[in-house]
Amino acid sequence: MQESYFWGPGQPTTSTTNNYAYITGKYTDGYYDCDANRLTQLGLMCEYLDPYSFADFEKACLLSPYPSATGYLSCFTLIRNAITFDTAQGKCTEFPGGFLARVNTVDMGTFISTALWAKTGLPPTMPLFNGLRRYSSQWYWMNPDGTKSTANTTSLPWDAGQPLTGDCALLGQNGLLKTGSCTTNQWYLCQYRNKLYEFNRGIADLKASPSVVMSETYNMSFRQCRQSCQNNGDCTSFSHSSSNNTCQLISGNSKATVAASGFNWYKPEL
């Protein structure tokens, strides 16, 4: 179907030779068709598209003095300063709300390795600290203040034969994790979430299907539920019921939901 809203009155004509269109200050009510001869008598009006049109968050990220990339609703920065894990844990302060990156899928690891050190290089001797640390036999995502949340180990992007002994996970050149010591001096990877795009759409009468429920907690307000998801490295969305203050944290496929009266499902607005 041909769009017609921009044409002037009676336009376009039925002429088979009028293959062009023009607009002038005289004809402010739309475009008029014309032939090639008429076109040679007209001036030109040029339009230039900005090839790098970024939101403020993306622009700030890409202007970082460190190697940086935007994706997964986040800004990632590679800090080439070798320090211990405990020191690095509180060093992601370039933007508000920073933390050691939570690389929890193979796809995410591949994206980061391609977007960052495919161009800047990552020495094989300098795999990166991220937010993953082991206590006893359990892996946790560590927060800057030292608090932690349990990591979903079923989806972690471990390299072949991993994990082995070691209390920290290190992100290698291939975007996969291997174990190492938290007391060695390593470079590290920071993550800053774009708060403008987090959980600002609520869809009524939906909650998670059992296959993707990470946890279900009662007597939790909406704000507490949202914060709990934001603090959990494996949480991709959440459902909340205001009638009984039930909070569901959801991991993995964000489309795995079922009908549930009284619940609202919140996911990042992409």
UniProtKB/TrEMBL annotation:
TM regions (residue ranges): none
Q: Where is the Apple domain?
A: 190-270
| A UniProt-annotated Pfam family | PAN_1
- Please name the CDD domains in this protein's record: CLECT (cd00037)
**Listed Gene3D superfamilies:** Hepatocyte Growth Factor (3.50.4.10), Mannose-Binding Protein A, subunit A (3.10.100.10)
Per UniProt, residues of the C-type lectin domain are 75-191
| Protein name in UniProt | C-type lectin domain-containing protein
Q: Organism, per UniProt?
A: Plectus sambesii
